Amino acid sequence: MKIQLIGFDYGIKINKKLSIFKEVIISSLADLILFPGHSIRNEADIDRLCPYINNTNPVVIFELENASPSGCMHTNNELYIYRNGVFNDMYSSQLFATSDDIKGNEVLMGKLFDELPRRTLNILGKRITILQCGETSLLECRKANNNVAEFRFMDNETLNDRYLEMLDSTDIFLNPIHVAQGGRQWLYDPKRVCLSRDGRHYLSTSSLDERSQGKLTSKRIQYIYSNGEQLFIAPEIDNDLGYVSRIVCID
């Protein structure tokens, strides 16, 4: 299975983003393509793309910055999928972004588990679960435990069972991120290790922040972990359009 990760430079205007989106999908030989958070603004941008995308082979996961799934429902960070040549709303959006959002909030944690049926895919026999950006904060790193990442609600038997069920039913975690994570890698790295242990895989992609503009070789823009170990894959960089691509092959 080939998975293509796409990361954006900082400050790319929407017309250029749409050009990247079209170019990548039309030319891709991957089975699955993951774009970073806020790939596209809204449904109107999808309407602009539809006439130009004719490659029906890849499954594409991306996020709308703002969406209106129904006449009375408006969401931010809405997940979308392109599959078999059709764009569809996944009717799921990011629920929390930081540890402060989720700390002590068992109801919100349960809500994320409720969302998982809409966040899971089966592609070429691989079971895929999507966690959006800071939703990896469902894990915490305690200094008392040598910063090993653990489920935040492990003392809640019901939630812990649902967490273990998520792990058991996932081969690949996809983590689209809005902006490349900063210097506190001691907080982030154990979470990637945890999610990718026991034969699983973790893949993330993001956009650069203002301080890193133009540095598409930055290792912070994309992370790939397999069975608890980080993998380093050489990128393909398009400096003119402002994006980076990596191909991950998973048996």
Walk me through this protein's architecture:
25% of the residues lie in helices and 35% in strands. With 251 residues, the protein is α/β, with parallel strands linked by helices. The protein has a 7-stranded mixed β-sheet. Strands 6-7-10-11-12-13 form a 6-stranded mixed β-sheet. A two-stranded antiparallel sheet has the order 8-9. The longest helix is centred in the first third of the chain and has 14 residues, at 14-27. The termini are close together.
Précis, in short:
By secondary structure, the protein is an alpha/beta fold. It contains six helices and 15 strands. It has helices at 14-27, 43-49, 99-102, 106-119, 157-168, 185-196; strands at residues 2-8, 32-34, 59-70, 73-83, 86-93, 120-123, 126-130, 139-141, 149-151, 172-179, 201-207, 222-226, 229-230, 236-238, 243-249.
pLDDT averaged residue by residue: 95
* Count of runs of 4 or more consecutive helical residues: 6
Distance between the termini: 6 Å
Fraction of residues in β-strands: 35-45%
Largest sheet: 7 strands, mixed
**Spatial ordering of strands, largest sheet:** 5-4-3-2-1-15-14
Spans with pLDDT under 50 lasting ≥5 residues?
A: none
| CA gyration radius, whole angstroms | 17 Å
Number of strands: 15
| SSE pattern, N- to C-terminal | EHEHEEEHHEEEEHEHEEEEE
The structure class reads alpha/beta
Helix content: 25-40%
